[in-house]
């Protein structure tokens, strides 16, 4: 008897996943960043690949190895991430888990900033980074069929997430409460907001959340029409 092949409901579909933090340079040795580890995004990329999708993982700096069967594009800044996302199109599925820095340093120094004896600390002027999720969600010929945003909140999670879903123009939004040990931790608990309503997925491993979400994505897209 031949072994039964694993079911691959996403075979032939292209997916892009963003993950990790971005690093916004202050000078050649310093940067602005956040606590994202990339674990949830990497787990989602792996889960989509297990279901047969052709996955491009656009990752900020993390300590993680690229999951098996996933093409990883490594970037550093939010603007590099935006360019890599649009270069990875077309894709039917986009899952945007990256914790993109909301601001970048207006004029990063080309040499290391020195502290001079008695000198005042430098003032950092910030500029907004592009909102990759909002840009990708805007109507257009290359818009993925299913765009999923993530929302990192520390308070009023449900309420902020509803606002964010409307503001970003994405199709689904996964809200996580990052007030505890979610960022960098092994587990996650989420609220999944779709046009059909909202669901709470209680605390479990980021891999388990990823497997559930990949299954949902496969169900939503349905069988592939040749
Ligand atoms: N996102 C993005 N590009 C940015 C900022 C955020 O693509 N410059 C995406 C994230 O990957 C995530 C979603 O937008 O999927 C929400 O990110 P979040 O930081 O929670 O929301 P913001 O709109 O940046 O609002 P705030 O940080 O003020 O809560
Ligand atoms: Ca943000």
From TrEMBL:
Residues 10-219 form the DNA/pantothenate metabolism flavoprotein C-terminal domain. It comes from the Bacteria. Its cofactor is Mg(2+); FMN. GO terms for biological process: coenzyme A biosynthetic process; pantothenate catabolic process. Keywords: Decarboxylase, Flavoprotein, FMN, Ligase, Lyase, Magnesium, Metal-binding, Multifunctional enzyme. Pathway: Cofactor biosynthesis; coenzyme A biosynthesis; CoA from (R)-pantothenate: step 3/5; Cofactor biosynthesis; coenzyme A biosynthesis; CoA from (R)-pantothenate: step 2/5. One of its GO terms (cellular component) is phosphopantothenoylcysteine decarboxylase complex. One of its GO terms (molecular function) is phosphopantothenate--cysteine ligase activity. CTP binds at residues 102, 112, 130-133, 150, 164, 168. Binds 1 FMN per subunit. Residues 15-226 are annotated as: Phosphopantothenate--cysteine ligase. It catalyses: (R)-4'-phosphopantothenate + L-cysteine + CTP = N-[(R)-4-phosphopantothenoyl]-L-cysteine + CMP + diphosphate + H(+); N-[(R)-4-phosphopantothenoyl]-L-cysteine + H(+) = (R)-4'-phosphopantetheine + CO2. Its EC number is 4.1.1.36, 6.3.2.5. In the N-terminal section; belongs to the HFCD (homo-oligomeric flavin containing Cys decarboxylase) superfamily. Catalyzes two steps in the biosynthesis of coenzyme A. In the first step cysteine is conjugated to 4'-phosphopantothenate to form 4-phosphopantothenoylcysteine, in the latter compound is decarboxylated to form 4'-phosphopantotheine. Catalyzes two sequential steps in the biosynthesis of coenzyme A. In the first step cysteine is conjugated to 4'-phosphopantothenate to form 4-phosphopantothenoylcysteine. In the second step the latter compound is decarboxylated to form 4'-phosphopantotheine. This is Coenzyme A biosynthesis bifunctional protein CoaBC. The chain holds residues 187 to 412 of 416 of the full protein.
